[in-house]
Amino acid sequence: MTLIQPHIRCSKDLEVKYAILPGDPKRVDRIAEFLEDVEDVEFNREYKSLVGYYKGIKILAMSTGMGGASTGIAVEELKNIGLEVLIRIGSCGATQNGIRIGDLIIPNGIVRDEGASRAYVEEKYPAVPDTELLFNIIDSAQKKGFPYHVGITRSHDSFYTDEEENIDNYWSKKEF
């Protein structure tokens, strides 16, 4: 009997190692446009998934919803079914000059100003990507000629607190 993960509703039967993780379920359909032999897998809660092939490599595309808590659940369950490389994609705000809509933001470190990551590791532990994956993403952006920015980003839980303007002003003064 194959163990199906309770939230993403997927199992090891997918036999996939790589995932692209947008937040919005509608973006999974957009990713499908770049894949071949696409098959829908599941859609439970905010977790919509499909598999397909990109240049012969099997890829899972799965939405994670908004925020660290739902992403944390997805990452844990994907790890349980054997995924090894997870790339989170999506939109983000930018508070620094020179960043345009559509530019790629490639974090080389993340300020953990949210709650979910604290359940996994203490605050002083840095949030940094896998170095080889980071360099591969930068190399791909360069080769494709995409405008991109590499630097420290901030992850947070709330968008509409009374202090958002002050918080944004504080972080916008920090340089990449």
UniProtKB/TrEMBL annotation:
Entry EC number(s): 2.4.2.3
Class of this enzyme: transferase
GO terms for biological process, alphabetical: nucleoside catabolic process
PROSITE patterns the UniProt entry points to: PNP_UDP_1
Alphabetized Pfam families for the sequence: PNP_UDP_1 (PF01048)
Cellular component GO terms held in the UniProt record: cytosol
Catalysed reaction equations from the record: uridine + phosphate = alpha-D-ribose 1-phosphate + uracil
Record key words, sorted: Glycosyltransferase, Transferase
Domain Nucleoside phosphorylase stretches: 17-168
Matches recorded under Gene3D superfamilies: Nucleoside phosphorylase domain
A GO MF label: uridine phosphorylase activity
Membership in a protein family: Belongs to the PNP/UDP phosphorylase family.
PANTHER family: FI09636P-RELATED, URIDINE PHOSPHORYLASE
Protein name per the record: Uridine phosphorylase
Originating organism: Clostridium carboxidivorans P7
